[in-house]
Amino acid sequence: MQLYKTQHLKVYNSLSGQKELFTPIHEGAIGMYVCGPTVYSNVHLGNCRTFMSFDMIFRYFKHLGYKVRYVRNITDAGHLENDADDGEDKIAKKARLERIEPMEVVQRYTVDFHTILQKFNFLPPSIEPTATGHIIEQIEIIKEILNKGFAYEVNGSVYFDVPKFNETHNYGKLSGRKLEDMIANTRELAAQDDKHSPQDFALWKKAEPQHIMRWPSPWGDGFPGWHLECTAMSTKYLGETFDIHGGGMDLKFPHHECEIAQAEASNGASPVNYWLHANMLTMNGKKMAKSTGNNILPDEIFSGNNSILSKAFTPTVVRFFMMQAHYTSILDLSNDALLASEKGFQKLMEALSAIDKLETGASSDFDFTAWQQKCYDAMNDDFNTPTLIAHLFEAVKHINAIKEKKEAISEADKTLLKETFNAFIFDILGLEDKNDANSDSDKLSGVVALLIQLRKEARDNKDFATSDIIRDQLAALGIQLKDGKEGTTFSIS
RNA sequence: GGCAUUGUGGCCGAGUGGCUAGGCAGAGCUCUGCAAAAGCUUGUACAGCGGUUCGAAUCCGCUCGAUGCCUCCA
């Protein structure tokens, strides 16, 4: 059955600035494009947050029964470092610094990107196209824009004519900018520039002799402009108008604004119905960015090898931390926040594992069907994962009460509870119940189990000196024993 | 300077014109040989100053602060 027929989803559309009822162009099917990474260095945690937000969105669409074509590109053609003529593309620069082929840089960091996302339990997109694999498509779009008169060629480069475009279209409608204001606020620089207007942007740049990444084109050897690849690839795989375009908030202007302009100039149609923007992850209150050095790598968190965190955190805890904030809000990373998330996540997992053991009765004291709908309502309200998680914790309270026989649950509700928990926690939020430490080594588990047994015997004999030695020595090794009604379990920190 | 977003209890972080967010920490309790773990209970916060309203943390204005974009950036 298709849930989307009964669950009505609202999304915040950056284009309108409002939450809108989501209706795909083709019933039951969704086309979604998300701007992927530029693979010139290791993906940092801030990058991951954006992709994780859209991974969650992708997962929810699938859960609702939509057929989704999710396209997330790899930018491997490099972007210009700056707008001046001597701009150098990032990948070429990195290649020169490291004395390797540009495609070697691309390969290295593409692999890193995929490895990290896998650790975070990402679902792979339907298509992951690369910019260099779509040079021909990009050239075709440039030709079309030139034909329509919205671009001009200068010295082997082609620029998009923003003022001309703005005469008949609305440049700035996504970011809420007005061309007049932009012109009025233009900084005075770029003395020797081929561009007619500072607002114009490159569709094709002439490659200087020393430039490594280059392709032949009708305008000579060069490379595509910064915004073109997304237009080319989204159009190719999703059509001239598609449902959702996502990306980080920092891409809204100029990148996405230019995408709209390119698409409208080349084929006349507005390319995207719903623009979704994920907000930034900050650290110490500042945006994470490769360029400023204010960032942390995922592996530095997983290993605990960094200066801001007191310990290591697993990928799923980091994911839970991020899901506790709404994707459109700025989220600040800190040790305390991560610690809080870790404890909360453990609590959730313990409740989940307790469900199976719950004894059922004739009826339930809690309306689990209504509760389940509240979970959906949260997600239907622009993917409100923090509210969803609050509802999950509400259920945790009832699970514990049932466990202690203070409340009752019916067999049917127990099944519903289990299915709902699994669906939201694993399928939608993408979390994993990995007790890394415990599953680490069967031998270790066996040894600890043996020690637990010896300690139990000592305690039964009231030999507390021995039992406390076992407990304290294990604790010193980072193995904590947890005495419960059903016996003793342990966790490794 | 321009555009945009934002300011919630010790920390993180939702939300809404009047009805408990949630997590963590803290406090109390239960359990325990003692602890730990676990569970239960507990907090009336919404930058400041005005205004609209029967009623605003939620709407409007101003002040102050923060962040993002305006050059590549998730």
Describe the structure concisely for a colleague.
Its EC number is 6.1.1.16. It comes from Cellulophaga baltica. The chain is built from 17 helices and 15 strands.
Topology at a glance:
Layout: E1 10-13, E2 18-21, E3 29-34, H1 45-63, E4 67-72, H2 90-98, H3 102-119, H4 135-147, E5 151-154, E6 157-160, H5 162-168, H6 179-184, E7 201-206, E8 222-224, H7 228-238, E9 242-248, H8 252-267, E10 272-278, E11 281-283, E12 286-287, H9 298-303, H10 315-323, E13 331-333, H11 335-355, H12 368-380, H13 385-403, H14 411-428, H15 436-440, H16 442-460, H17 464-476, E14 479-484, E15 487-492
Helix pairs in contact: 2-3, 4-7, 4-8, 7-8, 10-11, 11-13, 12-13, 12-14, 16-17
The chain binds one RNA strand of 74 nucleotides through helix 1, helix 6, helix 8, strand 12 and helix 11.
Task: List key phrases describing it.
493 residues; Rossmann fold; Isoleucyl-tRNA Synthetase, Domain 1; 3 domains; four-stranded parallel β-sheet; four-stranded antiparallel β-sheet; 17 helices; Cysteine--tRNA ligase
